[in-house]
């Protein structure tokens, strides 16, 4: 199969909840000189939608995957210098903006999880439905692979990864089987892992909940790419990058991500004053306003158009004032 092209990117990638993202970001992106950070550029579908909808907006597109950056760059070339690609992880937003001389931005979009490109390129090893090398790195130029994790972590560490990041009920059983299997020969292929997982999960359980290896693959992907740790750093950094009136939209695809997003937005949308104070000091007032009631999901029309929207949970907020100094200090100390 040849190298994917910009046309492939456009035809293969339908951005999830695009119109809803545009509606939520729109009031901030109409400001003169508005800049948006697409913190998870992927194949550029959301950014293309933003650049088409808002004629004056500039987008800084961040991705750790060099192949995604190349595809998106080709796809978005018609927009000229309104689009700036950056090879980085989204927790590097402050450094990226510093290098570009941008003190703040009007919008941040995060579309979390594995991208369409990574799922569709079977040799990357993200998909349990196809046999491929056990890689799963979003940036294939650096870091541990899934094979490294499976072949070097001890049984207890493996079980923890599967239980915490995959919420896998049979984590201990799978970890034990992996350690037993690798003693014969190192694991190198996704099909080997699928066979191990399937054998460890009781037949009755396999009848529900989708593919039996789904949770194990999710857990390994999160571990290999340090996804949750990066997200935990990226969320406050993204919020701090917003100018007053700026907006952040985050799309999550599993409960661990959504929990972190909910918590980060709630911190900004909740008074930091002690609950027993009769009057709230102005310095303790919230600095974010939630734009969604809970997490929004895809409706039937979106699901029919884009099956990958099935598990999406969207949350959004607007910055109403600068972050109080005492909360900035607390974050730096943490």
Automatic annotation (TrEMBL):
Q: Does the keyword Phosphoprotein apply?
A: no
Task: Give the protein name, as stated in the record.
Answer: Ribosomal RNA small subunit methyltransferase H
Return the PANTHER family for the record: 12S RRNA N4-METHYLCYTIDINE METHYLTRANSFERASE, S-ADENOSYL-METHYLTRANSFERASE MRAW
Entry binding sites for S-adenosyl-L-methionine: 44-46, 63, 90, 111, 118
User: Which GO BP terms, alphabetically?
Assistant: rRNA base methylation
What Gene3D superfamilies does its record include? Putative methyltransferase TM0872, insert domain (1.10.150.170), Vaccinia Virus protein VP39 (3.40.50.150)
EC main group = transferase
Job description of the protein: Specifically methylates the N4 position of cytidine in position 1402 (C1402) of 16S rRNA.
Give the UniProt keywords, A-Z: Cytoplasm, Methyltransferase, rRNA processing, S-adenosyl-L-methionine, Transferase
Any single GO molecular-function term of the entry would be: rRNA (cytosine-N4-)-methyltransferase activity
Q: Which reaction does it catalyse?
A: cytidine(1402) in 16S rRNA + S-adenosyl-L-methionine = N(4)-methylcytidine(1402) in 16S rRNA + S-adenosyl-L-homocysteine + H(+)
Task: Tell me, in one coarse class, where this protein mainly resides.
Answer: cytoplasm
Record keyword Cell inner membrane present: no
Note one Pfam family from the annotation: Methyltransf_5
Q: Which family does it belong to?
A: Belongs to the methyltransferase superfamily. RsmH family.
Top-level taxon in the UniProt lineage? Bacteria
User: What EC designation does it have?
Assistant: 2.1.1.199
Q: NCBIfam families from the xrefs?
A: 16S rRNA (cytosine(1402)-N(4))-methyltransferase RsmH
Which intervals of the chain are annotated as region Disordered?
Answer: 297-334
Q: Write out the biased-composition intervals (Basic and acidic residues).
A: 315-328
């Amino acid at each position: 199969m040849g190298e994917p092209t910009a046309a492939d990117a456009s035809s293969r990638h339908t951005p999830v909840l695009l119109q809803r993202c545009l509606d939520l970001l729109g009031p901030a992106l109409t400001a003169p000189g508005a800049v948006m950070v697409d913190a998870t550029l992927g194949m550029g579908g959301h950014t293309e939608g933003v650049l088409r909808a808002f004629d004056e907006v500039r987008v800084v597109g961040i991705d750790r995957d060099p192949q995604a950056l190349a595809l998106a760059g080709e796809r978005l070339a018609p927009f000229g210098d309104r689009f700036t690609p950056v090879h980085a992880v989204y927790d590097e937003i402050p450094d990226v903006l510093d290098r570009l001389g941008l003190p703040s931005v009007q919008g941040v979009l995060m579309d979390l999880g594995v991208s369409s490109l990574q799922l569709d390129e079977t040799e990357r090893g993200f998909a349990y439905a196809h046999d491929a090398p056990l890689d799963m790195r979003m940036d294939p130029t650096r870091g541990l692979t899934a094979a490294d994790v499976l072949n070097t972590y001890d049984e207890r560490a493996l079980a923890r990864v599967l239980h915490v990041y995959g919420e896998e009920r049979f984590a201990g059983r799978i970890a034990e089987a992996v350690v037993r299997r690798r003693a014969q020969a190192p694991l190198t292929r996704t099909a080997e892992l699928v066979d191990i997982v399937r054998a460890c999960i009781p037949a009755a359980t396999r009848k529900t909940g989708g593919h039996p290896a789904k949770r194990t693959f999710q857990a390994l992907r999160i571990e290999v790419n340090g996804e949750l740790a990066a997200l935990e750093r990226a969320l406050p950094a993204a919020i701090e990058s917003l100018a007053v009136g700026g907006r952040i939209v985050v799309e999550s695809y599993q409960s661990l991500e959504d929990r972190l997003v909910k918590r980060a937005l709630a911190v900004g949308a909740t008074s930091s004053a002690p609950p027993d104070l009769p009057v709230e000091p102005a310095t303790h007032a919230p600095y974010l306003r939630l734009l969604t009631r809970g997490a929004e999901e895809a409706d039937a029309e979106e699901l029919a158009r884009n099956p990958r929207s099935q598990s999406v949970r969207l949350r959004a907020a607007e910055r109403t004032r600068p972050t109080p100094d005492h909360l900035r200090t607390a974050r730096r100390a943490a």
